[in-house]
């Protein structure tokens, strides 16, 4: 779906604060509240906006230790097998198939190093995992759920869609 500059502005404003009213957004994009609502409804119905959520600080919940773990798997391991295994482990906050030497990359969060080690050992016990390589996160520098929508001047498009 091609987004016009007003759609892009609306998405950017919702990414900043999804609780903004249609009237507040409308005042920033020069549209009425009903016109903003129609656009947001269209963005939702076409799947551009998938939903709204509360962003929770993992540190505030005590999940202060994290790592990225490369999984090396047996020859015929499917993405579905990796997905199913990842969902069984509460410490897994993200899992991805990747290119390169490893077969998958898993993001783990735990309350401390002992919890991280326990989660890693459970992950290693999956029958298709042959080995792992871990990288402990020292600090989070940038964390977004999606790329920030920014209008490229003069093009009416975003860098991600250009």
From TrEMBL:
Residues 3-64 form the HTH asnC-type domain. Coiled coil: none annotated. The keyword Transcription applies. InterPro entries: AsnC-type_HTH_dom, Dimeric_a/b-barrel, Tscrpt_reg_AsnC-like, Tscrpt_reg_AsnC/Lrp_C, Tscrpt_reg_HTH_AsnC-type_CS, WH-like_DNA-bd_sf, WH_DNA-bd_sf. The keyword Kinase does not apply. Pfam families: AsnC_trans_reg, HTH_AsnC-type. Keywords: DNA-binding, Transcription, Transcription regulation. Gene3D superfamilies: 3.30.70.920, Winged helix-like DNA-binding domain superfamily/Winged helix DNA-binding domain (1.10.10.10). This is Lrp/AsnC family transcriptional regulator. It comes from Dactylosporangium maewongense.
């Amino acid at each position: 779906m091609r987004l016009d500059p007003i759609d892009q502005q609306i998405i950017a404003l919702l990414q900043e604060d999804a609780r903004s009213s249609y009237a507040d957004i409308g005042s920033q994009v020069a549209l009425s509240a009903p016109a903003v609502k129609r656009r947001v409804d269209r963005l939702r119905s076409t799947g551009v906006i998938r939903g709204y959520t509360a962003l929770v600080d993992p540190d505030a919940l005590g999940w202060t230790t994290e790592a990225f773990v490369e999984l090396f798997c047996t020859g015929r391991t499917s993405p579905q097998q990796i997905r199913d295994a990842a969902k069984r482990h509460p410490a897994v906050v993200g899992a991805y198939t990747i290119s390169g030497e490893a077969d998958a990359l898993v993001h783990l969060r735990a309350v401390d190093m002992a919890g991280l080690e326990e989660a890693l050992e459970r992950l290693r016990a999956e029958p298709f995992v042959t080995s792992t390589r871990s990288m402990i996160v020292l600090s989070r520098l940038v964390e977004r759920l999606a790329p920030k929508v920014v209008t490229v001047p003069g093009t009416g498009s975003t860098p991600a869609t250009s």
